[in-house]
Amino acid sequence: MSLFFWKKDVSRLTKSLHHLLHEVAPALPDEKDDLDDEPDATTNGSTPPESPTSLDEPPSNAATPSEVDVLDVDATGRVERLLTKIRRLVCGTPDVPIQTDECAQVVDMLLRYHVMERLVHPDLLVQISFEAQKSVGAIVKTMVHHHPAAIRPIVCQVSFLGRLCQGYACSATEVVLVCGSMLRDCLDTFDDAISLFLSKMPSEFDTLVNVACTHAHFDISSDALTNISCLLTHHTPELDAECDRLFASYQRLLTSSNYATQRHALQI
């Protein structure tokens, strides 16, 4: 089916991906299956569904759905094709600039039907191609930087940030780096995400420190260190409040036997 058709029916495009992911990827704890109840988005974009603020977040150890079904070849191919088309609409291409109205509608639909929460699950990312993984990363980056007001309620949640941190446990290097990059986009853009991470996600911070100290792959340990730098070089009230706990953990980096890790930690 041509991209031209999908560009004239972006609502159907995003709903198709939602239905497909709904069968295989878990939602976040507070997600509601409102596909059949929501009206179709209009081309000028509409307000995304309300999400809880950081003050309403459950603790980071709250139970979350964690299993993703194994995709068959047909489902994998459909996800990858849909991602390619959505990336073209949201991010544009060198030859085809972004069409503002169509992009706004796609963004609205991706948020309305909780597609982004499912797409960033590491167990789903590991089953799709590297190009499709990069498409997910590019879509998140574009939405964070060009549609911050719309995506902020989604990404500034313990459950969403925690799902990105789960990527560091993945055995596939490319998935770890894509998840790390998406986490960095959120931290670089939203002070709320940093505040939430520092105050309510102690185990995830320790995970970043552990990866930076012990991971054998230099690119992955450097990625974790870069995200630690994002967290500790933005001044927030939570950084002051949690200083003792954070730097007790950070001490591991300063005393690391790995020279590159120790040097990077000293630079931070």
From TrEMBL:
InterPro entries: ARM-like, ARM-type_fold, Mo25
GO molecular function, one term: protein serine/threonine kinase activator activity
One GO biological process term: intracellular signal transduction
Taxonomic superkingdom: Eukaryota
Polar residues composition bias: residue spans: 42-54
Region (Disordered): 26-69
A Pfam family this chain is assigned to: Mo25
Biased composition (Acidic residues): 31-40
UniProt family annotation: Belongs to the Mo25 family.
Protein name: Mon2/Sec7/BIG1-like HUS domain-containing protein
UniProt organism field: Aphanomyces invadans
